[in-house]
Design goal:
Two copies of one chain form a homodimer.
Chain A lengths: L16 H4 L4 H14 L8 E2 L1 H8 L3 H13 L3 E4 L3 E4 L4 H20 L9 H15 L3 H17 L4 H21 L2 H6 L2 H12 L3 H37 L1
Helix pairs in contact in A: 2-4, 5-7, 5-8, 5-11, 6-7, 6-10, 7-8, 10-11
Chain B binds a DNA duplex (30 and 30 nucleotides) through helix 4.
Chain lengths: 243, 243
DNA sequence: CGGTAGGGATTGTTGAACAATTCCACAAGA
DNA sequence: TCTTGTGGAATTGTTCAACAATCCCTACCG
């Protein structure tokens, strides 16, 4: 007798696909570097030496260069011919453009919600994580919780491509925050507004939530752009001096 | 006396930066392959052998693999570990998702137009190119003109990232059209609606244009999805038989 | 007929090698 | 003093050859 394991979906096996799907070393190296950049180990403007990192990670230059390619496409690294790869320094124009896209994407996603008390649990969860982080004074977690909150908002659109896009945008935003150098107060300020937006969503009031979110994004952008110009120049100078 | 060439921006020198910035061979190779895929030389589902293409183009395997990475990130190629790279076969879910994003992006861009008779010339130009192509029976040009038209619509948002995103989406759509195998009638059908949308835009009626565009995209998606299911399976079978 | 064990082909990854380019310091000249 | 060459060292760009890992196909065997 032959027993066929059916792909019924009820088994939840698909969730483990990520464990089965082996990744190439280049992708794993890219993952390591991505984390390092996100956590600020590699600072914006810094150069990533092929030799040093290749030796440190124990991979060949060719493989490492493949990893660099991946991250360059995610706008985390900037590749300059014959000069090497650098952690990107987002310009003010980048910040403005990032928020332009966020307004389009996130607002559209939120606008579409209807009074279905279905799966807003994930959003609520992220809001609560943010609250908890603020309560315990864990500013680092607060920042990431906020990012997750917005990713969940975008996920309301139910589009794989939108999720990927937002993921890249937020990764890029992390670079901006590293330049800002004081993200503590920045994120904390928007905590209560997360609740307001969540309330509207749970009430099925899409347009209302959109209105709040739009104002939210406009304020954040304005604050960011304002605090940015000085810092960016300072960071550039610091890097130039260090190198 | 010392004369300093200032970076005043009025010189327009930055515009020529693209001419100075040389491209790596990997990028040039990627460009060649991208064109080949777009024009249907490499059909969806086909495998791209490292050895063959490397020899044909006179580049090493390492360089070629870098090019493959680039195109994989653009969703034109699919990379399967230890099996090689294949021209992607977009699934029906991909088509639906692509149109989901297009609705969000293009509609948002169009919605924002105001009664500024400023720079709609570029859009009008693309519409006329489409008309001309239809008149002379040049179906291939008609398709690309239509793509350009929508790219111009998206460009109304004024966002570099949006432009890049739609560029990738339309490249992916070209793969879908190659599976469809009869794009002639498909594009022709929507020509008059281009004019309607353009009229609303020129009148500064953003919401009106958005409404038309939304219906346009919904119809196109429906037609595409309908004609797709059969074709996709047939193409898959054909490829399996040929290999 | 189904399972399995080879063997050939292709990809994954490495290391070395050389060319091309950039960077830096230092000297020469106005 | 400032600019302008000019070396050499360091780094990247690219190729090549080699080997391991994996996949695919076929032939064999129960």
């Amino acid at each position: 007798m032959i027993v066929v394991i059916e792909d019924s979906g009820a088994t939840g096996l698909e969730a483990d696909r990520g464990l089965v799907t082996r990744k190439s070393t280049a992708e794993r190296v890219a993952g390591v570097l991505r984390n390092r950049i996100a956590e600020g180990f590699f600072l914006p403007g810094g150069r990533l030496s092929e030799q040093d990192i290749g030796n440190a990670l124990g991979v060949s230059r060719n493989t490492l260069r493949e990893a660099f390619r991946l991250l360059t496409h995610e706008r985390l690294l900037a590749h300059e011919l014959n000069r090497g790869v650098f952690v990107r320094i987002p310009s003010v124009e980048d910040v403005v453009d990032i928020y332009r896209v966020r307004k389009i994407i996130e607002c559209a996603a939120v606008r579409g919600v209807r009074a279905k008390p279905a799966s807003f649990a994930r959003i609520k969860e992220k809001v609560e994580i943010g609250d908890e982080a603020a309560r315990t004074g864990n500013w680092k977690d607060l920042g990431t919780a906020n990012v997750w909150f917005h990713q969940e908002l975008a996920a309301l659109s139910g589009s794989e491509r939108v999720n990927e896009l937002v993921g890249r945008l937020t990764a890029e935003l992390r670079l901006v925050f590293h330049i800002m150098a004081e993200p503590r107060r920045f994120h904390e300020r928007y905590l209560p507004r997360n609740h307001e937006i969540l309330d509207r969503i749970e009430a099925g009031d899409g347009p209302g939530a959109e209105q709040l979110l739009m104002k939210y994004l406009e304020d954040a952008e304005e604050q960011l752009v304002g605090a940015y110009a000085d810092r960016a120049e300072a960071a550039r100078a610091a890097v130039a001096a260090a190198e």
